[in-house]
Amino acid sequence: MKVLLTGGAGYVGSACLRWLLKRGHDPIAYDNMLEGNAASVPESSRRLVVGDIADTDRLADALKQHQAEAVMHFAALASVPDSIGDPEAYYRVNVAGTKSVLDAMRTAGVSKILFSSTAATYGFHAEMPLRETSAQTPETPYGTTKLAAEWLIKDYARAYGMSYTVLRYFNASGADLDGEHGEDRRHEAHLIPLILHAALGRRPKVMIFGTDYETRDGTCVRDYVHTADLAQAHELAVLALRPGVGKAYNLGSGTGATVLEVLRACEKAVGRPIPHEFAPRRPGDPGVLVASPDAIVQDLGWSPRYSDVEAIVSSAWRWHEKHPRGYTEQPA
Ligand code: UDP
To answer: Across all residues in the chain, what is the average pLDDT?
Structure first.
């Protein structure tokens, strides 16, 4: 399939692009390169279009030129703490940016979209695991803007004959199994890369936010899902998209790990203690977020294979160990 991936030079987007390429599809990335890495896109001279999702005309042109049959919309801002400090940016990129993507699709006559949504759209819940039917009551601008984008897509689809699949990621993590590509942002706020940066001495230590949650060791529980498994889900979902149909699926492993368990798994992979410090809770963090992935397993035959914490962390460490300064050391 010919697919355009907004944010296709980013962490999850490029993992999906590489997967699609290996599976014989014809993907291109459309990325403003603020967080993207050209080296993460194979054949980047012809598979990477540099542009911003806010530039509706440029995106529509890219869709037409590539004769795209579908869009996978990854481009977004994705840090819970940053969203609390700067909601303007989150509404601009995640909501207005999604509207621009949909408008470009209408102009170019593309009617199929997969959307990268998030567990953060669910907010605080006592009952786990979360199902697609669980109430969406987000607690942070990251969650509200992703939910608003889900609504935008649903309304456009109904009115303008589009079909969509919303994929609600839990904690996207891990690196390509060959150790060649991994997680590398200019501004990092996510747990596993921050722990591994501390292991490499790129930062003095990692902070553990909150030790008084009602969990087995007091730290937050999250459901970590490997990017290779996310990529498989995207391929299955795009192939299954039928005209006029809209669906939402959780993408998680169905099991949770605490922050301390992730730290211990990293220490095991690295082979030494990793400097860390306990700190107060981070605002907006629910104590537990765990998915039920049953719906996508049942409907599309998704079979996550790499999403246990030890496998995730050892793949991430392989990449970090090999690329201690990330993509900056590699030629573009
Ligand atoms: N976390 C932490 N220290 C950090 C970054 C994150 O303790 O430096 C915790 C955070 O509170 C959350 C979990 O790790 O419980 C995962 O956070 P991340 O930002 O990676 O993803 P999120 O769950 O917010 O999407």
So the answer is: 96
Ligand 1, atom 24, lies closest to the CA of: 80
pTM of structure: 0.97
The fold for domain 191-221+255-329 equals UDP-galactose 4-epimerase; domain 1 (3.90.25)
Which pLDDT band holds residue 329 (cuts at 50, 70, 90)? low
Question: Over the stretch 276-293, which tens digit does the pLDDT of each residue have?
Answer: 999 999 998 999 999 999
pLDDT at 332: 42
Instruction: Please tell me which residue in 142, 213, 249, 306 is annotated as part of the active site.
Output: 142
- Is 6 in contact with 53 (CB distance < 8 Å)? yes
- For residue 233, the one-letter residue type is A
Q: How far is 187 from 96, CA to CA, in rounded Å?
A: 22
**Quick check: CB of 78 below 6 Å from ligand 1?**
no
The CATH superfamily of 2-173+226-251 is NAD(P)-binding Rossmann-like Domain (3.40.50.720)
Decide: 181 in ligand 1 pocket, CB within 6 A: no
Active-site residue, 142 included: yes
**Which residues, other chains included, contact 70 with Cβ-Cβ below 8 Å and sequence gap of 6+?**
1, 2, 3, 4, 110, 112, 113, 114, 238, 241
